[in-house]
Write the structure tokens for this entry.
Amino acid sequence: MRSLLDNLQEDIDTVFSKDPAARSLPEVLLFYPGLHALWMHRASHWLWHRRARLSARGISHLCRFLTGIEIHPGARIGRRVFIDHGMGVVIGETTEIGNDVLIYKGVVLGGTSLEKKKRHPTIRDHVVLGTGVTVLGPVEIGEGVRVGAGSVVIHSVPPGSTVVGIPGKVVHDGLHIETDLNHGRLPDPMSQALDQMREELAHMRRKIESLEKRETADSAADGSAKPAEKVRRPAGKGPKATPGPKRAPRQKVKG
């Protein structure tokens, strides 16, 4: 059983390991709202499961006021989770977050149902949620997934994938066990599709030009092999003369 001090020390070590801007212990303790939000959430979550719902919501609301991060007391959050900057982060009641998850500012883990059931996302271990990511509904984001900034995810994502776009599309498969901070360098599916179309059009143009050259060469070969035939006419008969215009008859002048 881990002690409270062990958990606090692990949270501090997580900040140093995932944020190169962290330089000293006093700085981390005083000026990291993501760390403060996680600590306050642990207190509110403890009260929530002991039926002290009003007190739990009070701590959650105070956390929102102080840090700009709103985490419902009912949400389950694992170990070594880091919320970087954190302003605008919203985590719903039935959200489940695994271990070693990296969350940037503006991330929304929201619900899509009015029924009192599982209605928020499940985030597995080693996931990176980029700036402004929205994940809606009881979907599952698999282990090692990277979600690009500004993406909207409305379907479950298999482990090891990279997701970008609105709605989110899987553009890469392959398990990422280590947390990758380069979440800004992600593929652009629209640009890739346009590049592919350009390549196909260029290929079709080259093929059409090749067919036209071949047709021209075949026509030239046929013309040299078959000289033009002379028109034969019957002997003694030349071409008919074209009749000229008819002249009006002369009128006699009377003397």
